[in-house]
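pasting for ref
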Amino acid sequence: MTRALAPPSDRQVFELRFAPEPIHIDGNSHVNNVVYLAWAQELAIAHWSAVASAEDQARWGWVVLRHEVDYRRPLLLGQTALGRTWVDDAPEGPRFARFCRIDAPDGSMCAQVRTVWCLVDPASGRPQRVPPRMVEMFA
C-alpha cells in the first residue's frame, strides 16, 4: 500500500478509540509499531462480534493469512487514536480483505493495515467459502 486508505462511502465502518498506555511506548517515545497491529486485530474482532449473531459466531471463525502495515506518523502517550475498519466489497472464496486505519487526534494517519482473513469452520479448522449473506452483514 502506498496511498492512504479511506473507507468507501458504500461500506459499513466500525470504530474504536485507543488510548496508549505506558507499556505501549517504545524506546523512541511513541507507540510501538507492534501495538498498531494488535489494535488492528482488536478492531477486526470487535467488528465481527458487533455484526455477527451468536449463532454465526459459533458457526464460523476467522484466521489471519496476511498483514500489510504502513506506519506514517507517531502516536504519543496521552493522545487518543481513532481506529476505523471496513471489509472489501467482495471476498475471494474463503478469503476476505479487511482494512484498518488508525488516526491521531488531529485526524492524521498514524498507521494503516490491510489484512487478509480466512473464514474457517471452528470444529475442523477447514476454510469455508464466505457466504453472500455475510458480505451483506458488512456492507
